[in-house]
Amino acid sequence: MAWLQATIDTDSVVAEQLADALMDAGALSAAIEDALAGTELEQPIFGEPGEPVDKLWSQSRIIALFDEAADVALIIAAASTQCGIALPHYAEERVEEQDWVRLTQAQFEPIRISERLWITPTWHESPDPAAVNLQLDPGLAFGTGSHPTTRLCLQWLDANIKGGESVLDYGCGSGILAIAALKLGAASAVGIDIDPQAVRASQDNATQNQVVARFYLPDATPQAQYDVVLANILANPLRLLGELLSGHVKAGGKIVLSGILQEQAEELSAIYATWFDMEPPVFDEGWTRLTGTRHATV
């Protein structure tokens, strides 16, 4: 079986409307991308979880997929008329049947976090069997080690877990940070996430990695304090969670925050200085890691 694919260049004003109109007219799928992706003019778009992104790329590209027998030109013309715009420029190509599983897996190679820490998909052999290897496959929950925010937290764990620590991963996603902490020597790890799917994925990943960790929804968060609390989420929830997170850190314990854009670092560091002696921020590709030590008294 084969499909037809159309690549349509448009702008942010009509991109979403045109993508919806293509679906109404018979497209099997329609995804919007940055037309300048991979160039120096690539435009990052950020949004908080659960909140709509208030803008699209100024130069957008719609990738639409159609049945092999579809009249692509007619569908694009109908969608354009529905949107009240002129027929846009587009390119059409045939997409042949492929081994999509193998093709997808080929995009995910082992990720080296440090000299001794690797993230390896289950279908790959470990590049360094003597290293600390986390087996983790891409899934619905965030956190495979490829994103700078996750990488910053993993690097901190690798450098700072000495053995025997208790760890809380707030916003655990795939459970990668809690699992890594245990494999690096932490005595216990708990993960919290608002998404039931993330809680299930985290537990499955812990089992895959042969570690024992506990994962909960926020309402079931244990009332306990920890040597290390990690929160790799985003700036807006971190602004609101300072008191809650600080309450889970033992006096003299550490907090590790990520998911923060570089330009947000100063503001977030000032907020958490209420409870912590904050260290200088660490940056990676425009993202920030903040760390601090809990005051003995507040």
TrEMBL record:
Enzymatic reactions: L-lysyl-[protein] + 3 S-adenosyl-L-methionine = N(6),N(6),N(6)-trimethyl-L-lysyl-[protein] + 3 S-adenosyl-L-homocysteine + 3 H(+)
Domain of life, source organism: Bacteria
Catalytic activity, EC: 2.1.1.-
Name of the protein in its database record: Ribosomal protein L11 methyltransferase
Signal peptide location: none
Name of the gene: prmA
Naturally occurring in which organism (per UniProt): Pseudogulbenkiania subflava DSM 22618
GO molecular function: protein-lysine N-methyltransferase activity
Binding site for S-adenosyl-L-methionine: 150, 171, 193, 232
Function of the molecule: Methylates ribosomal protein L11.
InterPro entries linked to this entry: Ribosomal_L11_MeTrfase_PrmA, Ribosomal_PrmA_MeTrfase, SAM-dependent_MTases_sf
GO biological process: methylation
Protein location: Cytoplasm
Presence of the UniProt keyword Protein biosynthesis in the record: no
The keyword Ribosomal protein belongs to this UniProt entry's keyword annotation: yes
Similarity-based family: Belongs to the methyltransferase superfamily. PrmA family.
Chief subcellular location: cytoplasm
One GO cellular component, as annotated: cytosol
Keyword tags: Cytoplasm, Methyltransferase, Ribonucleoprotein, Ribosomal protein, S-adenosyl-L-methionine, Transferase
